[in-house]
Amino acid sequence: MDDYSLLDLFWTMLWFFLWVMWLFLLFKVITDIFRSHDLGGWGKAGWLILTLLLPYIGVLIYVIVRGKSMSKRDIKEAQERDAAFKAYVREAAGTSEAGGADATKQKTHVDDLAKLAELRDRGAITDEEYQRAKTKLLV
C-alpha cells in the first residue's frame, strides 16, 4: 500500500466516477428506448441489440440520433407529473368535511391562491405583491 500514491488514488477515483456515469447513461438510453412511443417493436429491438452488443458505439449513436427527442420526452414526462401533482393538491385542498357554504368559500380561496401562485411563478407579480394578496385572501 506504500507504493500507491495520491495520484494513483485520484486516477482510480476518476475512472470509477466515469464508469458510474457510463452505467447511468446506458440505463438512461435503455429506459428511453422502451418508453419511446414513436419506435415500433423492431426499432426498439434493433436499438436494444445495438446498445447491448456494442455498448459504447450504440449509446453514442443513439444519443447523437435521438438525443433531442430523448430530452423532449423527459420534459413532457416531467410536465405531466407536475400537472398531475398540482391537480392532486388542488383536489385535496379543495375538499372539506364541513360541506355547505364553507366548502364553497374554501374552494374559492384555494383557486384564488393557486392563481396567485401561478402569476408569481410566471413573474407577473413580485413576491411582495403575492404575500399582500395572500394575506388579504386569508383574512
Number of strands: 0
Helix count, DSSP H or I runs of 4 or more residues: 5
Low-confidence stretches: 96-100
**Integer average pLDDT:** 85
Residues in helix, %: over 70%
**First-residue to last-residue Cα separation:** 69 Å
List keywords for this structure.
mainly alpha; single chain; 0% strand; 5 helices; 139 residues; flat
In short:
This protein has 139 residues and is mainly alpha-helical. It is built from five helices and no strands. Helix 1 runs antiparallel to helix 2.
Structure description:
The protein has 139 residues and is an all-alpha fold. The protein contains 5 helices and no strands. Residues 96-100 have low confidence and may be disordered.
List the helices and strands and how they pair.
Blueprint: H1 6-35, H2 41-53, H3 55-94, H4 100-122, H5 127-138
Helix pairs in contact: 1-2, 1-3, 2-3, 4-5
